[in-house]
Amino acid sequence: MLRFPRAAAAAAALLSLAACNAADDGTQAGNAAIPDVSIPDISLKTMQDVVGALASDEFEGRAPGTEGEEKTVGLLIERFKAAGLEPGNNGSWTQDVPLVEMTADKVSPLSFTGGKAPLSLAFGTDFVAGSYRVQPNISIKDSDVVFVGYGINAPEKGWNDYAGLDVKGKTVVILVNDPDWEAKEAKGEFNGRAMTYYGRWPYKYEEAARQGAAAALIVHDTEPAAYGWNVVQSSWTGTQYLAASENNGADQTAANGWIQLGKAKQLFADAGLDFDKLRADAKKKGFKPVALTGVKASLSFDNKIERKMSKNVIAVLPGAKRPDEYVLYTAHWDHLGKCEAVDGDGICNGAIDNATGTAALVAIAEAQKKAGAPDRSLVFLAVTAEESGLLGSKYYADNPVFPLARTVGGVNMDALSGAGAAKDIVVVGRGKSELEAYLAKAVAMEKRTIVDEPTPEKGFYYRSDHFSFAKRGVPMIYFDGGENLVEGGTDAGKAWAEAYTAKRYHAPSDDMSAITSWDGMMADLRLYYAVGRMLAMTTAWPNWNEGDEFRKARDESRKGA
Question: Helix (H, G, I), strand (E, B), or coil: what is residue 95?
């Protein structure tokens, strides 16, 4: 997923902390001094060679379970070996990740009857849908339709969009993002402008399944979704990947999907309802779900099912003094593979997303090895199936090779900027953990600045692999170059990011031509290197800040460690 511009406002305490760190004289993280480190040259040639290979048509877009995966895994092992690292999984370079490959076939129109007029939506252009149930045929016939607002059930907030409603066997229509996403500040019931996990589409499908719905349809709206319909279409109309489960997804909805905003408005109008009014009502606590009385939904499709064993790639640089304490570098190697053709090009190469982050693992590994073993072990983890819902990182977090209680923290790298060198950097989820003190010191060394994320409503914190570890309590930091470019300033940086989102993100044009300059990502790699090195040279165990949602999980995991 695209990571720039980023999301979440900073707390006042973090602003003062950053100011303190800027002096770079005995910087503290909690009660421990942050070690001084030097930053060596990091190989531009490695970045260009690895990105060039991974983003070539030969690698077929790096979809899990394909020849593109085999070539990707082989290349990474070769490069980690050459860098002088060791295999990270008990003598193996890889960790098996069991996946189920699902491809929808013979998809019927999504039809609604019982309103003023029948409504038939075309697959791809009007709606997309797939199933989390591993079964060969999906059929939803004459299912009652209910509007459930934002589809949130948050007892701690006294909020339940399903209150008093039994949706078993029904089709629920859901709004994307949180109820207060239009707020100007990151304050409010659901963090205001800064999206919470309740606003993300995976949560909405999860909750619909818990409620027993037959189908869950999210209404696409470009601004709160953070991307256009073209991204939904390219991401949901090809082969999908699921985590293998013992019950084959029997507890999931039969169908999950998206519908175009205009079609949703037409559907509600045919049911005698005002969509815009109901959308406004859904923003208020106490909203009650609304049935589209008499309206029935029908949809059917076949599933082509294959079980595949994908791979996480794991390399380690053992620590010299405390090898049983681990610092993580993570990036996802996968992309969408072969996708809907645009101008005859049907390969989604994923150069920016995320050949850049994967290549960064290799380049930083080389530099760390040349600098000599740090006190703690450095783990370089290239994970699979991020594009399918963070499946590879979730599998590792559920089945860690190195104990999470002994994992100090780490750095996630995803979709590095190809816009050029920036004066600033943006932290995803700023204000969450003590790792930011390490970054602040590195930023001061490089004479750059940390700024707040300009689009917190897009919820990037919940959209990359660091989230899988955060849920388990492991502090992870995730940052990128900002928009204030050395050449062209903020206007140029914003224009580049917007053009990438509109024209290249999850499209065949995310190829090498998307990288207009290597200067920015190479400058950012210096920060990634420094933060990891600092963590590997300190004796501290940085934590989530007091009151953070992940603090409890970390405190519990560290008991007796």
Answer: strand
pLDDT for the residue 132: 94
Domains and CATH numbers, the chain: 12-63+318-421+429-477+497-514+521-558 (3.40.630.10), 102-305 (3.50.30.30)
Q: What's the pLDDT score for residue 215? A: 98
Alpha carbon of 75 to those of 70, 80, 106, 155: distances in Å?
A: 9, 9, 37, 47
Mean pLDDT of 468-474: 95
Residue 470, Ramachandran bin (φ over 0: left; ψ between -120 and 50: alpha; else beta): alpha
CA distance 204 to 328: 30
Measured in whole angstroms, the distance separating CA 242 from the mean position of its chain's CA atoms is 16
Mean local confidence (pLDDT), 275-280: 98
**Beta carbons of 388 and 395 less than 8 angstroms apart:** no
Would you report the helix, strand and coil content of the chain in percent, each value rounded to 5?
35, 25, 40
Question: Which positions ≥6 away from 61 have C-beta within 8 Å?
Answer: 68, 335, 336, 337, 338, 339, 347, 348, 349, 350
More confident of the two residues 45 and 8? 45
**Cα 53 off chain centre by:** 23
Q: Tell me the pTM.
A: 0.84
Q: What pLDDT is recorded for position 31?
A: 57
Selection from 136, 132, 377, 372 nearest residue 256 by Cα: 132
Q: What is the pLDDT of residues 372-386, one digit of tens each?
A: 999 999 999 999 999
Residue 372 CB coordination number (10 Å): 8
Closest C-alpha among 449, 526, 437 to residue 17: 437
The residue with tokens 């909805």 is 253
Cβ–Cβ < 8 Å for 37, 534 = yes
